[in-house]
Amino acid sequence: MEEIEKLRVRVEKDPNSRLFLPLAEEYRKTGMLDEAISVILSGHERQPGYTSARVALGRIYLEKNMIEEARDEFEKVVSVIPDNLFSHKKLAEIYRERGEAHNAVKEYRKVIQLNPLDEDAKMSLEEIEGRPIEEKEIVFPMQSPAELSPGVEEIEVPAIETHAH
Questions:
Q1: What is the pLDDT of residues 149-158, one digit of tens each?
Q2: Which residue among 17, 48, 129, 164 is least enclosed by CB atoms within 10 Å?
Q3: The whole model's pTM is what?
């Protein structure tokens, strides 16, 4: 509770700071979910582009079993940040629980694309589709040479002109 009080005071002093999110997380950890939601909603009014707040809000909505609200938040997140793995995974779970197999498959495929090592997503996809997922079905995200070899800069190679003789 001491940490909550410290953060609460800091947020009151600077309502435009992003400290509302750690405060909401502390509320969530102590089971004060309504307070966490309230803090995020008021902080999000001042910081509408702070997508991490939407992710946290979706998570809290799930904990409160407010499935539709959670779904809305996660859908908003992936519309802005298409590679947000956590939100895709939660959407897949929500769709699956609601019997929306087509949407669940789409989300599980996205999860596997973002994290090809996610065995839970593979197993869930296999259960929904009723068949094993083959390696060739896993689409790896495009990676630049710099991502494959950190510390190596990409250079632009000029095209070579050829002339027929």
A1: 344 333 333 3
A2: 164
A3: 0.77
